[in-house]
Design the sequence.
């Protein structure tokens, strides 16, 4: 195939030697590409290391600020909780006071009102025999009861 000329003798290159040279060239090109890729990977790793260091430098103060904010929020929540418990206590005291006032003054006020109604009715001089101008109707649990039935039911209760 190819002849190589040398000073001493002519050497013929065989097919195996050509294949070996091609493989060696291929490996040299592959190693070159891998070296370039490794160099770029090294640059990327350096840039990533710098980025992580910068993020760490910025994150530490941010975490300290966040921790302080959480502590402050916890303090405010404790204050609000104390205020809410005080409001609950005041509400229960006000409820107890209103119950006491209602039970103390409610019964006598109802009696005074009933007495006043009785006095007004007695003073007006209305006769039991005279019919009312218009029969009254009461609503009981969503139903209308005629005045005559109402009087039968409540006649014993008024006396």
Sequence:
């Amino acid at each position: 195939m190819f002849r190589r000329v040398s000073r001493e003798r002519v050497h013929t290159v065989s097919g195996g030697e050509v294949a070996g040279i091609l493989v060696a060239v291929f490996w040299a090109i592959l190693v070159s590409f891998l070296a370039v890729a490794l160099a770029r990977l090294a640059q990327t790793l350096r840039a990533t290391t710098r980025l992580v260091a910068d993020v760490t430098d910025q994150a530490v103060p941010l975490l300290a600020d966040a921790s302080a904010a959480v502590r402050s929020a916890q303090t405010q929540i404790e204050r609000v909780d104390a205020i809410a418990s005080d409001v609950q206590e005041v509400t229960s005291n006000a409820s107890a006071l209103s119950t006491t006032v209602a039970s103390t003054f409610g019964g006598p006020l109802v009696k005074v009102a009933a007495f006043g109604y009785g006095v007004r009715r007695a003073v007006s001089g209305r006769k039991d025999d005279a019919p009312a101008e218009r029969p009254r109707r009461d609503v009981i649990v969503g139903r209308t009861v005629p005045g005559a039935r109402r009087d039968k039911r409540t006649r014993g209760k008024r006396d």
User: Anything to note?
Assistant: Residues 118 and 159 are 12 Å apart (CA to CA). The chain has a mean pLDDT of 81.
